[in-house]
Specification:
Keywords: Repeat
Radius of gyration: 22 Å
Helix content: 10-25%
Largest sheet: 8 strands, mixed
InterPro entries: F-box-like_dom_sf (IPR036047), F-box_dom (IPR001810), Kelch-typ_b-propeller (IPR015915), KIB1-4_b-propeller (IPR005174), SCF_F-box_component (IPR050796)
Number of helices: 7
Structural class: mainly beta
Protein name: F-box domain-containing protein
Length: about 375
Amino acid sequence: MVERSVWDRLPDELIERVLALLPLSSVLRCRCVCKQWNSLLKSDSFLDLWAEISPRNLWFLVYHTHISVAAFSPRAHRWNNLPLYQWCALDPTQVFLLASSGGLLCFRNRSFDCPTLIVCNPVTSSHRVLPSMSQIREIDIVGMVADKDSHSYQILVTGTAEPASSESITELYDSRTGRWTYHCRSTQEFLQFWYVVHAIWHDGSFYCLATPVNTSQGYRLIAYRMENRSWVDLNVKMPPGDLRCLSLVLCGGRLLLTGKIVEDYVTRSICIWELMWESLEWVEIGSMPDYVLKDIHSPNSILIQCQGHGDLLCFSTHRGWQSILYNLTDLTWVWVPENNACGGSPCQAIGRNNLVGLPYEPSLSARV
């Protein structure tokens, strides 16, 4: 056992480096050792070092209950049922989760008269209620991007001033200024949605799938160019067939599309496509094996959702405990163990509206 005097003789810089290499849960426990360590582990120098060299631990936020959010850790291959609402001092009956980036989560209130966004860092138990948007009252698209270097983030929202409006408005929140900025208006039909869509940030633009009210127009890949402050239809031809439950994900800089192909009301396959930027077309790079498809797509598991990060895709049914990981590098499928958070049962009451479908990387240094 190392005597305490040894630690006392070590320079703070060396102690910081040793502690920064510990898992996040260990760092939080070390804050309770003594006042000196608590102060050290909350200092700007340690937080910057931790962000630079600490081991990464990504979680897939799969579904939520009225108590917690079920997060699966591929690294540890186990569930973490996170009391995010308690950590962020939020009432789960009054908010729902919209976006995630850089260790931060973005919630919105359930009031449809005046939508309010709340940004939280669950690890530091900090949150910020954002000011009201200047014009938007009905939210259609939400995208979030965090900049770890500047400890800042931006949130893009596209919506309308009233429910029946055909004119879409886009506003941007910047944490550096603490205010919303009006960006543009558009009457493009592909911006008229019937539910909130999550936009993905990649290389200077937000991307999402347009699922217009006029469904005869079909799905379309659209992008918001930050530099030009405008939404554009990329005119990418969608894969053939009757496509259902489509998810747009970003994995290692690759823009991927996943979804079901249905024939005669029967799911024939669940496929993975990659966008080829040169030709702007979707190319199939994989599909779910029949034995997996049979198990995951039971008669009661109609909705399939996918999220991705790095070289992993996580497919989940609306009974959120049933999930499977696909490794894009090894081309392997691995079942996620059942999460017995609900009194030892596989959460039979979880419905399709409880799916979250967001990757989340806990962070000590992300600032709200």
